[in-house]
Structures
1.
Amino acid sequence: MATETPPETQLPKLTNDEISRYSRHLILPEVGMEGQQKLKAAKVLCVGTGGLGAPLALYLAAAGVGTLGLVDFDTVDASNLQRQIIHSTATVGKLKVDSAEIMLKGLNPYMNVVKHNTMLTSANALEIFNDYDVIADGTDNFQTRYLVNDACVLLGKPNAYGSIFRFEGQASVFATKEGPCYRCLYPEPPPPGLVPSCAEGGVLGILPGLVGIIQATEVIKLILGIGDSLAGRLLLVDALSMQFRTLKLRKNPDCPVCGIHPTVTALIDYDQFCGIEKPAAVGPLEVARDKAVGGAQVIDGIPQIAVEELKRKLDAKEDFFLLDVREPHEVPIASLGAPLIPVGEIEKRIGELAAQKDREIIVHCRSGARSQKAALVLKNAGFTNVENLAGGILAWADKIDPTMPKY
Amino acid sequence: MDIHIPTPLRAYTGSKQTVNVTGATVGQVLQQLTDSYPELRQHLYTPEGKLRSFVNIYLNDDDIRYLPGKESTPIEESDELTIIPSIAGGRYF
Ligand SMILES: [Zn+2]
């Protein structure tokens, strides 16, 4: 562990109620009274209270970690509850940190919850991290991953890392004194938009549970100083084949942050590093809507059509070709009845659209992101009149057909 | 030998989780892989033909960047090659 554990005499005493609660730990020689006191003295920061952070924080609270910090600026949405078991139906709409506190305190009233209802940024990360012994990274984007990593390396605090995609997960412990960091493994993030995005891709709800509990296990081991941590190893979890593999990770002597001659010695602009535009004050959906209201909005040469305009064209039986670029399994959920070519197959199947080359084509998906990419592919292939349905099915459900489900 | 394809890249291998290829070196089997599935190429290599920095290729449990022979490391039929994607939760490469 990064910080020195105070000698046993300085560790906080357990009350009789705590002794009863933690008896299954106390009779385990690897934990025992001293270990349980170390847990009570420990301060762990969970970055994110989503899919990974939910089981992670719950198990750390149950185990008796004395202080749990929670960083999240989001509110609970019904679609979170398929995996974020720290929240509940009753707390939909509440701040995630408040919702999580209710569940954690209900599980274990003897621990402290410190709520950081804020977006983690380069301006506040070091100050927030400073008060904690171990950081657990349960975020969902590359900018925050690199921010958490660099802050951990700069402060010398271990980072219990977990990440998931669909049916696959990764876990490790980064930024220990001797071990590698996230940048040793991935010096740079992938550029956004390299892949035609199915980024709206799902995740098997129990997978973050599996990976978050592996992170929690690593946190507990770091606090207790027992076992072999995942530092220097990357655990790969494949939930479909149910196979676990570990690969060797090495500290890269040329690592820009933890190497011999580091070039990153302070936190940087991680949006810029990851090639992401600064988040707007309103979400992308709102931006798309507002722009559409003004009419004739064009992004990268693709005119953006509002759902109201599509409705008008449909009602007027205008001549145009509507194309759905979602995945086939999304059609049964909600559909505008358009022919389907998934965004990833557009280039390969472009011949099927040959007859539409000079016709007006309106491309749609769930939110307007994938259809924008598909529209660009068509335009670059010589299609002369391609437009994107701003806001996609979601906007259609909001503004045109309230009976349509949003997913 | 078998190359393990991670979920995000299976869209380019016809959903195959493993692809069987033959070759004498790491570089040769990767070449054969991208010949069989040309769409994979841009996800693994830069236009200049360099392995992308956010793609990690493991021979058994070692990163090929740390093997003395790197991409010219000889391989045997029983070896396994694994492509490790950069995943961040919601997004991936
Ligand atoms: Zn490093």
2.
Amino acid sequence: MALSGLEIYKLLPGSSKNPEVKKHANCKECGFPTCLAFAMKLGQKQAVLAQCPYVEEESKAKLEASAAPPIRLITISANGRKLEVGNETVLFRHEKTFYHEPGLFVRVKDTQADAAEVAKAVGEYMVDYVGMNLTMNGVAVEAAGGDFAATVAAVKSACPLPLVLLVEDPAAAEAGLTAAQGTQSLLWAATPDNWEAMAKLAAQYKVPLAVRAAGGDLDALAALAEQVKGAGVEDIVLDPGVRDYDSSLAAFTQLRRLALKHNERNVGYPIIAFAGDDPVLAGQHIAKYAGFVVLDRFSSGTVYPLLVMRANIFTDPQKPIQVKPGIYEINNPKPGDPLMVTTNFSITYFSVANEIESSGIPGWLLVADAEGMSVLTAWAAGKFDAERIAKSVKTTGVAEKLSHQRIVIPGHVAVLMGELEEELPGWEINVGPREAVDLPNFLKMQWG
Amino acid sequence: MPTIEVPKEKWNGKVREITLGATAAEGGTRAKTVTVGGETTLPFLHFEGEIPRPPAIAIEVQDRKPVDWSPVLLEAWGDVTEDVAAWTKAAAEAGADVILLKFSLHDELSPDYARQVLRHVLDATGLPLIVFGPGQADLDNDVLVAVAEEGKGENFVLGVCEDKNYRTIVAAALAHGHLVNARTAMDVNLAKQLNILISDMGLPLERIVMDPTTGALGYGMEYGYSVMERLRLAALQGDGMTQQPMLVTPGEEAWRAKEARAGEGVPQAWGDWAERAINWETLTASTLVESGADIVVLRHPESVKRVRGMIDVLMSKSGVTS
Ligand code: SF4
């Protein structure tokens, strides 16, 4: 947690109780007139701690810890495909944004004949959503009594994504890590029983290590993370050992609050969650604070909605998704079919496009560059006026695709009609409905 | 070894408690009533406050077989969509706490017709009702005024009130003992404003359900989600005009999405149609339940089962640590 200037001041020589240190107060060696002035600059990140030669060791440790992110960034990778989670700074996305989408993994067991096949499907899966290619993030290989190393090797060659190794026996873990060499996998899990051996492996193979406590015991979890860290493992992931909706929500919320608001360094790490074969639980994990989500089953009809949900929740509220301005053809329109105009705010675009598309009516949808605002907001801000609409009619060359010169404008901007007639001489301007949902009816009744 | 203190927030606000329906003793004919609200913490955080009761699930039935519903939905309900009374019974059996009766837009729609349909539904179930008009101001007013009068004292939720059309509906609720659903377009201040406008007409805040508008998964869900989180935070921080229980319509929104409606001509990566469509509705609903919804209106029986399953576990207090 970042410290304020005043909190920093309390750790500088000017506030020291040790006369040997206190005597340097306001010596100006840092380049600032007083310790307080230096503290303020540190708080604003306009100075670095090393500029003061007299800071006590204990204070130094506190100040350095406060500069680290409250939730550590953890990276795993394979074949150039990388997943970063952590570094989150808020509890609610509207406070700023959520930064790193949780990785979605599918579990395969080493006793499962089709493990490599599943891994291949997971690795190849890709789906388009508003122009983004959404993909899965990896495979979690579980040691369930089969040939773990062989399964890890098979999964690794079938799928280019990072791995999570689900294994508690250190000997099997080492075999798995050897088989996974060349990738940066996540090793799960260190428990109170095996943590020394697991920490040694994680340090030796330079992989992040998940620590697992039983039944949501956060004390035990923090203690384990501290022990593992003491053994030289910096990259840690938390598994509080809860699996159902209620205890996950409670434990994950508490962990996030502890890290962000209570400066609890021992739980300042991403969380791994296990959703079984329940997409609804996976959805909760995505919205409420998991960094890794492991699914038991891979199925397009389930992962597609989950990937879209993740994209939605992790959209920066300050930067809504925009669609590219231009002309969109819906239901294979012909030159005589209707032309409608709307803005490039993604939700506006999709609600209009969706209505036209599901009505089955062919049409041309002209998307004007309104800087990603909805119709009313853009109009109020002067980003969706007659001039802009006319400009997009001209620059897209839509007229050449049509056998008519008629354009439907959103009902909310009916006032633009007169101006638009001037900007587009020879065009007939029609005022459409205010809401997208009424478009199909409007087209059926008015266009002919 | 250090002991971690459970990080609790202190809230001084509480969501209003609103009861839907009225039994004979209360002036209606419902076999049971459903109360929502009363939370004193964020959704399901039993470790720091009261979540006195689960969110309610309403199932939407329409006065006649919908012409624009996805075949996935129509197949799930089968023949009952031909008859509103049968559909209502099936919805109750599918696990509804509340029935939402939605009038569709057609030529026969009239006040008398609406009264008749309402009678059938009242006779078919003892559950509380939410009644929505077809969504056109004049017709909504005609239908809802008739329904309000016909079901006098039943304590329905009448909807939808919007800033451009709420007076007639609120007056009908006032005159005949009902509640209203106040819908605003995903905006905290608009939501507060409409609550104020409606309560200024004399309808107590205890009779207003707030509907912040739902976007489907992939179609703006995150806007509604964040507005609901902000409304709930404001409510818990003591802002009296945000303390209404929230009603959302993930069923209607999700089933308008192409992902739920289209079985053919879609990318292979979208997977099995029914699986994807039901996930679309379920995930939209479950995400909104996590952000504070008190009433979710659903369409598919399987979604009802799954959302109920989730709510049951979230209410089990398995996550309470001492
Ligand atoms: S170097 Fe700056 S901060 Fe350090 S003791 Fe001197 S004045 Fe204070």
3.
Amino acid sequence: MLHTLSLLVRNHPGVLSHVAGLFTRRGYNIESISVGVTENPELSRMTIAVGGDERVVQQIIKQCQKLVDVLSIKDLKYDESITRELAVFVVKTPTNQSRAEIIQIAGVFNARVADMSETSIMIEVTGNQRQIDSITRLLAQYGIEEMARTGIVALTFPSKRKPEDSSERE
Amino acid sequence: MKLTGAQILIESLKAEGVEAIFGIPGGAIMPVYDVLFDSGIAHILTRHEQGAIHAAEGYARTTGKVGVCMATSGPGATNLVTGLVDALMDSTPIVAITGQVPTHLIGTDGFQEADIYGISIPATKYNYLVRDVNKLAQIVAEAFYIARTGRPGPVLIDLPKDIQLAVTEYVKPKPVSLPCYDQYFQEINETQVDKAIQAIEEAERPVIYVGGGVIISGAHQELYEFAKRTHIPVTTTLMGLGSFPGTDELSLGMLGMHGTKYANYAMGEADLIIALGARFDDRVTGKVSEFARNAKIVHVDIDAAEINKIVYAHIPIRGDVKKVLQVFLKKLDKAKLKTYDKWHKQIQEWKTQYPLTYENSEDEVIPQYVVEQIYEATKGEAIITVGVGQHQMWAAQYYRFQAPRSWVSSSGLGTMGFGFPAAIGAQVAYPHRTVFTIDGDGSFQMTIQELATAVQYHLPIKIAILNNGYLGMVRQWQQLFFKGRYSHTFLGSPDFVKIAEGYGAVGMLITKKAEVRPAIEKALETDNTVVMDFRIPQEDNVFPMIPAGGTLKQMIG
Ligand SMILES: Cc1cc2nc3c(=O)[nH]c(=O)nc-3n(C[C@H](O)[C@H](O)[C@H](O)COP(=O)(O)OP(=O)(O)OC[C@H]3O[C@@H](n4cnc5c(N)ncnc54)[C@H](O)[C@@H]3O)c2cc1C
Ligand SMILES: Cc1ncc(C[n+]2csc(CCOP(=O)(O)OP(=O)(O)O)c2C)c(N)n1
Ligand SMILES: [Mg+2]
């Protein structure tokens, strides 16, 4: 099963290597990883999607917790958190009809048309993993020329935050 | 006070109480060596950086203090890598300091540049590349703190040359506090201890399984009292040797692949296993699904990630094992303890039926006999360091360790060449104790150049080579599992006596049983480094043996 781990880490040049290195060394599979600074410039938030059974994920969490740069780690529950990805597609539009259909699909997913040429269209979309997977599948029918996907960013809903979550030591 | 980076480093090392550094200088670390020159800190110049870090490990393992080693950039730094991983695997506190090319050259393939920061990420507990001299004092304090606390391990500080030369105001470091360390300061969960005591009360066939964590924690006295009061037999891992007196009636000796039969049988039959600072290594469990199937498992470890890593723990207890055992001892007063008479009778039967023995010879030099003679001649009080292979196992089996921190073995990584430089570190730490290296002919030749170091610093280490002319442990596996095809394991033998003499040490050749004890006595009286070349049979094997990934039923010998 896919788990979404949210790590608060010290922000310095080596930190990504330390976290990624742990995953390589212990043979854990990263599905996606995204890193960005937080409101505190000394801290970054890493969101890592990993696959594995409960025992493996527990091991990953404990091993991450030991890293000197990791301030906190949470295994985000699907129904207690927002998870989002950004994806950008360039899709072939050989005919006006295909272009119209693609724009329609984009509408359903709240996607935005970022650019257009005579033969292709650029679509930008944010959503959870399932939504991005769906639009990818639909657009693939028309022929995706290029695509880029960010990997997940996620946070717990404030209304679902439990007291122990304040273990986010800043 | 304005100081250079190099001066700040040395001041910081002094503040940490560092008494000895093992290392080799070179271009990128010269400013530090210049300050070291008249700093008052002892420096042992080894002949290879691997020797330096293994010596630092020997120092750390025998004292419990942080071992410090130093090397220049590039090849000096990369030569440390084996030792870093070795220290990581055996939880040994090390601070390694490496010179680095000046910051403006980093990333340009500068002369003797190697990305030791990147290389050492999976080889250390933590590492630093210092980019600002103002942070140096704090980094050194943090490095020592990380190396020695929690689950100890190696920390590397990579120090570019321009930072060594940069001048700044020296500010004493703040007390170190790390968020990831909160977990080590949590209170011991006493309810878990209560559950464990209840399990002890209910058990019929309990065993205490002790690992290196008990030695790290300094919990040997608590362990002794705990075992004595609960009447539970004790087996130790290779790393745990010395944590419990090997001659005690409750001792089962070592367990695992080359452990005693009675220790392994006891584990197989146990209904309760109390694991103290041990990590269920595959050399101990064999086939995990068959391991200790009848037992409830209490697992005490300071590292949460060790719990449930290999084997499910019914009663996990996280914390420093010394503190945990103190809680146990306090609570034992109210416990309904048993004497497990039937169980002890069973164990005694196993001990009588399957004793740890070997076939001696009238005239030949039998390796186990040599170890026994060293044990007797040193009254079990020597510090013993070993290489990796058959000789390591014979030493583990037949030297009955009485005290913690007297056995130094590269166990997790199994690094040939570890033993002799580790002895250098031990002898530097304890100039007046007897330090013996029981080495293999193959292992010794991997760091043999450190004879020059031992002689230069007048370290009277005794090296007993159990010389079988083979990479014996590998040859044994070839004999047992590869149809006796001895593919590239024959070594032959150089003239170790001449080599010793060439370095200014004393060499002895021992080819007959009758010469064994006199040679050991003579070596002990010699105030110099001594190399003893014990010519043992070429094809002796280590038994008992449970094949890798095997079960009790597959035990050989
Ligand atoms: C050729 C060869 C053969 C071998 N054969 C055997 C064999 O037959 N039997 C055998 O046992 N080993 C054998 N080994 C060694 C084996 O590979 C492992 O290194 C060893 O079993 C691990 O020992 P340990 O479980 O005590 O763990 P260690 O590596 O000593 O780990 C210590 C554990 O204690 C914990 N700890 C640290 N500090 C504390 C503290 N303060 N409080 C609580 N917990 C703490 C750590 O987190 C860790 O889990 C062999 C090695 C070689 C090279
Ligand atoms: C650096 C290193 N290389 C290879 C090995 C694999 N290995 C394990 S034991 C062994 C043989 C050791 O020979 P020796 O030191 O003579 O000891 P013996 O087994 O003969 O007592 C080898 C090659 C190792 N453990 N370490
Ligand atoms: Mg040999």
4.
Amino acid sequence: MPSTKTEQMVMASLKARHRKEQSFKLLGIAAIIMALFFLVTLMTSILSKGLPGFFQYYVTLEVELERERLDPAGDLSDQSLFDGQAKKIIQEAVLAKTGAKKRNEKKAARKLVSNGSDLRLISFVQANPELLNSRQSVKFALDDDADSYFRGFVKKQTPEKQRRLSDLQIAYLDQMQADGLVSYEISDYLFFGSASRNAEMAGIKGAAIGSLLTLVVCFVIAFPIGVATAVYLEEFAPKNKITELIEININNLAAVPSVVFGILGLAIFINIFGMPRSIPLVGGMVLALMTLPTIIISSRAAIKAVPPSIRDGALGVGASKVQATMHHVVPLAIPGMLTGTIIGMAQALGETAPLLMIGMVAFIVDIPGGVTDPGTVLPVQIFMWADFAERMFIQKTSSAIIILLLFLIVMNGGAIWLRKKLERRW
Amino acid sequence: MLELGEVIVNCADVSVFYGDTRAINNISIDIEKQSITAFIGPSGCGKSTFLRTINRMNDTIDSCRIEGRVKVDGEDIYAPSVDVVPLRAKVGMVFQKPNPFPKSIYENVAYGPKIHGLSNNKNHLDEIVEKALTRAGLWAEVKDRLHDSGTGLSGGQQQRLCIARTIAVEPQIILMDEPCSALDPIATSKIEALMSELSAEYTIIIVTHSMQQAARVSKRTAFFHLGDLIEYDSTDTIFTNPKEQKTEDYITGRFG
Ligand SMILES: Nc1ncnc2c1ncn2[C@@H]1O[C@H](COP(=O)(O)OP(=O)(O)O)[C@@H](O)[C@H]1O
Ligand SMILES: [Mg+2]
């Protein structure tokens, strides 16, 4: 039983305190449930749309690999194969399979196989020249409308005028499927294809490589500059009005909308320095500007977290300021600096707006071979695909989002791993 | 008047300011070579601040400003031409909280000799490390794990490692700022024994809040109060027959 006066008063107020604690706890749980709900909704939506995008429908056709027609110059060079009649040979195979005779029938049948199939046949021939002058089964992608039919997005019940496939085309497709020629497989175009207006051929390879190149440029520029700035400001700069002003500006820059950095890049790198548009080099430079404040702020925090006693220890045995910093402070701060950098880079990886400003939104079919080749990046590719009307682009957009998310997860995982590996206790 | 042997540190009218506040008021003091001098006084009276003027560690504090003259070995250490690097190699420091580098025991001790280029080959460096650890009374305990982390040692061992790190660069003076305040009595007595041994070769100036410690180890004692040097005499005189009322009040426990 409560004996003292204080104890009695404490007991009296205890109930209200418990109640408050309880409601606070409930509030927190509710917030977490809300957040989880949104996360699950988002993930389900992306996964349910995106996972089918990793697959597409292919048709296996028997093609006659006549050497004279495929490779007129006879040297298997790109030029010779492009001059050949790969397209015609595939069309003949389709016509033979479907038995289309009349002009409108032929036209309908030809449209069922992807436009880019000739390239696939050419690379098949280049990879297997010994198969020339024989009859081979080769797999080709179906056109995206045919693909949509097999996915059930084009329905027979819909009046013929209102769907993108005619009754005849549907009949041909049904026949191919009945013959066991149609297969649903992992889409190689998605991973190894480049930008294309044909939904069934479009892929992320070019954009992924563009993203990689851009990030490399961003890291190479932003990390050394950011770390050097942080070290200077923390360890060497006199504390006066000027450094205070610089500090405030850096903190504010971290909150500037990214598109502003794009405009800055456009004005300085492209208009003043005359660098080309659309190249990963400029993209990386713009993203470096954007990431710098994040890197500087996190690096400074990492340096601040190094106990002053370590500096004293080094200075006490006669290390110079630079030695104390380089031998002791920076090595201890590196894990924190890298974590901040990777988080900044992950942000940069997902950035679209500033890259639109410097023209990385151009439609580029070639895969960039270096930082000065025109290219685009994953988020911009997603942004462009999301704008296209074809059914298949919707799935590919979601697939690309999943791939982008995987990139981000890998980068964040890398940050955690690095921190765990490099972290030392003192 | 206090009779001193050869003087190694000579301070004249030293005042130290943090911004506008004065932490040390016009202190003049001479420190005898190769002996132990203790600075005692209530906390906040400026013992650490004054100690740190002797190796210019106060330079690292932006707001800190020093007036007066400090001579080490006859050289004015605040003269514009003086570089703090050789000064701190000559005047080493051991801190209140043991602060070994988060590196191996070996590297902790080898760091000073390395940056000062005291050794140009591995064998010689090994010798320096062994000698320093031996003199710090730590060799027997760590010789089998020189490449383990220095931060894995016990508090007392860490502090002796810091002493080894300091003496590895062969300083003339060792400043110790409450080196035992974070240690247990056994570790403390080890460090005290070590100090007595080291005082044959080195000049040691120790700040301590423990009057018993000052009485046990030091030959001279300086009593500080509110930034003033109240009394400086042989330790015996300070503890048995102080001239100033304040000193007597402090050592008899009437304030502090
Ligand atoms: N870095 C600093 N900045 C401002 N004032 C300080 C600083 N260090 C110490 N002081 C002040 O100087 C006075 C003396 O401190 P200090 O030398 O640490 O005393 P002690 O070591 O005797 O306890 C105290 O009033 C303290 O508040
Ligand atoms: Mg102190």
